[in-house]
Structures are given as structure tokens and as C-alpha cells.
Amino acid sequence: MASSLSASLYSHVCLARNESFSRVPVKALSRCLVPRKGLPAKRCFRILYNRKIIGAVDSMVTREDATPAINDGSKIRVPHVLTVAGSDSGGGAGIQADLKACAARGVYCSTVITAVTAQNTVGVQVAGVSVVSEEFVAEQLKSVLSDMHVDVVKTGMLPSVGIVKVLLHSLNEFPNLALVVDPVMVSTSGDVLAGPSIIDVFREELLPRADILTPNLHEASTLLGGKQIKTVGDMYQAAKLLHDMGPRNVLVKGGDLPDSFDAVDVLFDGEEFYELRAARVKTCNTHGTGCTLASCIAAELAKGSPILSAVKVAKRFVEATLDYSKEIVVGNGPQGPLDHFLRIKKDIQVSGKHWAFDPKSLVLYAVTDSGMNRNWGRSIMVAVKDAIEGGATIVQLREKDAETGDFIEAAKSCMEVCRSYGVPLLINDRVDVALACDADGVHVGQSDMPARLVRTILGPDKIIGVSCKTPEQAHRAWVDGADYIGCGGVYPTNTKANNRTIGLDGLKAICLTSKLPVVAIGGIGLLNAGTVMGIGAPNLEGVAVVSAIFDRECILEEARKLRLVLEEAKHQSLIRESA
Ligand SMILES: Nc1ncnc2c1ncn2[C@@H]1O[C@H](COP(=O)(O)OP(=O)(O)O)[C@@H](O)[C@H]1O
Ligand SMILES: Cc1ncc(COP(=O)(O)O)c(N)n1
């Protein structure tokens, strides 16, 4: 349905016809169900990036057909949020938070800046607000709205009555735009961002135009003339009273609710209340949560979600970002920012250990086999450590019959070993496991996930290898963004059933046409590794072995001998090339 309607039209249909989302009276926010076997819920959560349902409880309100991009014939129009807000020099709140939240949710975000603030993790500095003139706000609005297909307008800091009026004028010209109003008045640090003078124009003109209003407790209280809001019951009352001022939906945010174990928000749509609860994350890094929540709601509406669904996804997103940001340190003050991409922490952990793929690392490529290690009574971790100490230059975990949870545990311990030796670790086939343990990459076969998709999921800095038996497959792998190809089986092998062998001729034919570095695989060991490397293909970088290392009593010794043979073969081919 959403694909045949423009996103803004669809969100308006949903907003106008409230019947499109189911009404569940005072329903607590559904919590994630964890798949019984498999990835721990937290990792599923991160991998699925809060977009998908984990478990089944959410089905009561979620529209599955909301599309992130609208395809008008051959051109793809992306969902688009325009944020009208203030700039935060510290990058934690305001325009900067809005841009990051929309980007993280896969939505385009344009910006109209209403004020420039000088703030950081301590707060807004003295004389730290410079308001943009009404004329120039109008100019920015004109630039964006006269040209771009905006679906939803989200407002943050609106520091003067004049600026609110200019915005209202534009909204009148574009009556189909959905409007999310975050009535920013005071920052987390307690600094005033919009004075009491704007309250009248908010109440009388902006709120009646809003599809959803998202005040925190302080803002709700201010808009209601100083009403005390200290309990969840007060939040219900406030939501109802604010709804009477005209917005179609009101979300009163309880981040600052005293003595609350949960982070409770109350949504009122004019008929039903929804009490949305999330675990309260213990963190000081909460600067920008309100802006992020409102932007995320706007982003989901722009994709075509109904209000309740948009709010639930946004709240989950904020909870996840708060959790992932709780240890990051950006400044010396008490209010740190969120990590919208759930990544900073991870990148800090691996900083200095991230390197670009080096084809030379393919020289001795060790591929594990859980059966063999079990037979020899050793753990994968010990096996991998011995292989590396013997001279393996890259490791691939190929655990075809492991349970997902066990596979992740094994992969995490192998990651530690590999990182400590500076050797890349790839995961066979399982992109989810690679993400869960932050492996260096993935190796896929022809019938696994297509390399192009793996690249999209893993991003540009991970290593991707593809098994190929023909020059055409090798070409496809290159086009799809792979880093290397594995060619084989060169010789018959017991480690892979029904595997057609390509022989040395097949290997050479692929090497000669491949634009990617090649590693040979299949039945290779001490006795034939030299012959394989001697075929005279400069892009044949090494051999991948399974049994020749892991089905031996002393892994370290076998790896050492193989490495010597390979170094000698490389040396000989260099002599041949220079002759
Ligand atoms: N410590 C926390 N843990 C989980 N969620 C939180 C926490 N603090 C705030 N939230 C949530 O973040 C969103 C923003 O709320 P709030 O902090 O009240 O807004 P603002 O940033 O505008 O003051 C709400 O959904 C709220 O429930
Ligand atoms: C420019 C700008 N806009 C909004 C906020 C509110 O964010 P928070 O409540 O997290 O301080 C802010 N501090 N600065």
C-alpha cells in the first residue's frame, strides 16, 4: 500500500483516519521477545537496528509494508524530514542530533537553522545563543520547500515569535506536510533556549497545526501554565489537557520523572492513552534524547508508519542509543551526547587495530573445521592460536553445524586471539555472526548471500571473499565488491561433499582473468602447495587449507612447514618473473 502512495500522503491518510492503527487501551510498551536459540537479544537488536520485530508481541500495531524508499518509475524518492531547529556546536542536540537520527533511520534530512548556539557537554555558554533573523529563516524555508519533496517537518528550538510565524506561513503554503513539534524551551543543562514569549503563539497557532507534540515534563508544565507533573497520573492529565490545545497526538516524555525505575512516556491520540515503558538506562549521556526521539518519530512517519508505530520505534531507538552510548566520553561536562550509529564504542575498542585488506595476508589461509578439532579434543580457540603461531596469515571460521550462540562465543574468543596477533578473522557464510563478533569479514559461496548484499550489510571496511569456479563467477565477485576470491576445489577433498574439482588448469584460467587476488583451495597440503603456487599467476596469493593443518596432531608444526613451502614457492616465482 505504502509503495503506491507517496509517503507524506500515506502518513496523512493515517494521521487523518486514526482507524489505521489498532487501539489498545493503556497498553504497556511491548518488550522484545528473544529467539530461544540463537543470537542474544541485545545483539539481534543492534544488528536489526531496531527496525524489525524481534519476537512476536509487536504485531498488534506494526505496519509491515512501510517502505523506506518510494519508487516513482525509474527514480527512487527517499523519505524526507525537514528539521527547523537550532544548531548545537557540541553536536549532541538540535540540528546535529536531528541529522544523525534521520541518517541512522535511513531518512533524508534537510535543515532550516533558527539559531546558532555555543554549547558543549557542560551546557550553553554565556552569550551562547545567536538567533537567526526571521527573514533568513524564511529564505531557508523557501529554498528547501520550493525545490525538495519534504514529507514531514520537525521543529526544535524556535527562539522567537517571529520565527514561529514565518514557519506557520510556510506550513500554510504546504498544508499536506505532516508536523512534529518538539517544544524545546530549556536544555538538559537548564539553559533557556526559547523564552516565555513564544508560549502564546505555540498554544494558539502552532499546536493546532501539529500532528504530534512531544514535550518533556518541564515543557508540558510550561505550556499548561505551570501545572505540576510529578507522577505518571499527572502525565496522563497533561497529555489530555495539551491535546485540548489542538495537536492530533501528544506524547508527554517522562525522562525526568522523579523516582521512576522505567523511562515512561504517555501518548494520547484523543481517544486512547498508551503508556510506553522502556528500561531506564543509567547514563549521563542523555544530551539530545528529546531531539532524537522527535526526529525519529518524524523519520518513521516519513516512511509511512502510523503514529503509534512511529513512536514505539522511536522510543526503542532512543533506548538502544542510550545504552550503546553510556560509556562514551566526548567532553568533560556532565551531559554527553548519544551515539546514534551504535558504533562509536565499537570503533574506539578496535581503534588502531583496523587495517585495510592486504592481499599478502592470503599466503597461508587456515579454514577451521569443528569436527576435526573435536576429534583431536581441542577447542577452536586453541586450534586457531596454534595455526597462527605456526604461520597462518588469515583465519576463517567454518562451523557448519554449530548452534548460533556457540558459534558467536567461539568467534568472539577467536577474535581476541586473532586481534592479538594482528591476523584477520573471517566468518564462513554467517553475516549475522560476523556482525555479532565484529569479525574482519565474511567468506561466502555461490549459493550463500550474494556478495553485493554482504557488502551493503557489512559496509566498506570489512573483508569479503567469494568462492568461484569460473571466470564469470570471478568477474561477478569483483563487480559485487569482493576483496578476494577462493578458487577450487583444485584437488578432490573430503572436507566438502559433491565439490567439483577445477584442477590446476581451471585455477590458472580464473587467475588470468580475475581482477581480484586469488587463494587456491581444495585438497592442498604440504606435498602439492608448491606445485599450486608454481602455476605462474601473479595474483595467486596463497593457499587455503583445512585438513592439512587442523586434521593433524600438531597444528603448529604443520602450519610452520606449510608456510616454509609457500615462502619458498613465492621466492621461486619472483625469480622466474624477474628472469
Ligand atoms: N535514562 C533513560 N533511559 C531510557 N530512556 C530515557 C532515559 N532518559 C530519557 N529517556 C527517554 O528519552 C526520550 C526523551 O525524553 P526526555 O529526556 O524526557 O526528553 P528531553 O530530552 O526533551 O528532556 C523519552 O522517550 C524518554 O523516556
Ligand atoms: C540547539 C538545541 N536544540 C535543542 C536542545 C535541547 O536538547 P537537550 O534537552 O538534550 O539539551 C539543545 N540543547 N540545543
Automatic annotation (TrEMBL):
GO terms for biological process: thiamine biosynthetic process. It is found in: Plastid, Chloroplast. GO terms for molecular function: ATP binding; hydroxymethylpyrimidine kinase activity; metal ion binding; phosphomethylpyrimidine kinase activity; thiamine-phosphate diphosphorylase activity. Residues 88-334 form the Pyridoxamine kinase/Phosphomethylpyrimidine kinase domain. The keyword Transit peptide applies. Pathway: Cofactor biosynthesis; thiamine diphosphate biosynthesis; thiamine phosphate from 4-amino-2-methyl-5-diphosphomethylpyrimidine and 4-methyl-5-(2-phosphoethyl)-thiazole: step 1/1; Cofactor biosynthesis; thiamine diphosphate biosynthesis; 4-amino-2-methyl-5-diphosphomethylpyrimidine from 5-amino-1-(5-phospho-D-ribosyl)imidazole: step 2/3. Keywords: ATP-binding, Chloroplast, Kinase, Magnesium, Metal-binding, Multifunctional enzyme, Nucleotide-binding, Plastid, Thiamine biosynthesis, Transferase, Transit peptide. InterPro entries: Aldolase_TIM, HMP/HMP-P_kinase_dom, PM/HMP-P_kinase-1, Ribokinase-like, ThiamineP_synth_sf, ThiamineP_synth_TenI, TMP_synthase. Residues 364-549 form the Thiamine phosphate synthase/TenI domain. One of its GO terms (cellular component) is chloroplast. It catalyses: 4-methyl-5-(2-phosphooxyethyl)-thiazole + 4-amino-2-methyl-5-(diphosphooxymethyl)pyrimidine + H(+) = thiamine phosphate + diphosphate; 2-(2-carboxy-4-methylthiazol-5-yl)ethyl phosphate + 4-amino-2-methyl-5-(diphosphooxymethyl)pyrimidine + 2 H(+) = thiamine phosphate + CO2 + diphosphate; 2-[(2R,5Z)-2-carboxy-4-methylthiazol-5(2H)-ylidene]ethyl phosphate + 4-amino-2-methyl-5-(diphosphooxymethyl)pyrimidine + 2 H(+) = thiamine phosphate + CO2 + diphosphate; 4-amino-5-hydroxymethyl-2-methylpyrimidine + ATP = 4-amino-2-methyl-5-(phosphooxymethyl)pyrimidine + ADP + H(+). Its cofactor is Mg(2+). Belongs to the thiamine-phosphate synthase family. PANTHER family: HYDROXYMETHYLPYRIMIDINE_PHOSPHOMETHYLPYRIMIDINE KINASE THI20-RELATED, PHOSPHOMETHYLPYRIMIDINE KINASE. Essential for thiamine biosynthesis. Bifunctional enzyme that catalyzes the phosphorylation of hydroxymethylpyrimidine phosphate (HMP-P) to HMP-PP and condenses 4-methyl-5-(beta-hydroxyethyl)thiazole monophosphate (THZ-P) and 2-methyl-4-amino-5-hydroxymethyl pyrimidine pyrophosphate (HMP-PP) to form thiamine monophosphate (TMP). This is Thiamine-phosphate pyrophosphorylase.
